[in-house]
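Title: Prediction job returns without error message
Component: structure pipeline
Severity: low
Priority: P3
Assignee: unassigned

Description:
Job completed but the reporter wants confirmation the result is attached to the right record. Sequence as submitted:
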Amino acid sequence: MHGVSGRKLPGIVVLASGNGSNFQRIVEASRQGILRAYVKMLIVDKDCYAVERAKRLGIPFKKLEKPWRENLKKLLGEIKPDFVVLAGFMRILPPDIVKEWANKIVNIHPSLLPSFPGKDAIKQTYEYGVKVTGITIHIVDEGVDTGPIVFQRAIEIDQSWDLETLESKIHEIEHENYPKVIDRLLHEKWRIEGRKFEWI
């Protein structure tokens, strides 16, 4: 796959487990030139709506077979993506995959980490009653949502919002920012010093 300049575009693989709205936005952004990369494949760990989106968008997809860790490692080795993008993938990647693809796996999380890591982060923030929440994009390490933070965007929670409204607001800022940050990671220089991510 080549861009307008004729240079080969980087290829990415997206991992998802659910609705797949971020996956769809990434594909759309790549086709609009916002994300200068192409999606080689969607990988899912179970039957989910993301697969229906892949079918509609014409993106190849695979469902992980058991044992899923070995299957994922084999798939990534065959596809050889330039970057692995987690978009609602609800499994913890095994250390050997994180090590093999060090600094080439990115994740988006619907809270301002380190607050509210793990599952159901939007519901956690809503029930806790925080006044400000947001999204975090981070490089994946061996922990749960503990990798170096690349980008955060905050929003104030209006007291009139219900959980559904908060979810839609979070998805809006995810869709706006995730493709742009992935593009920067692929095309700009950066480094990680200790825990800190820095653009160079």
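Comment from assignee: result matches the submitted record. The chain is about 35% helix and 25% strand.
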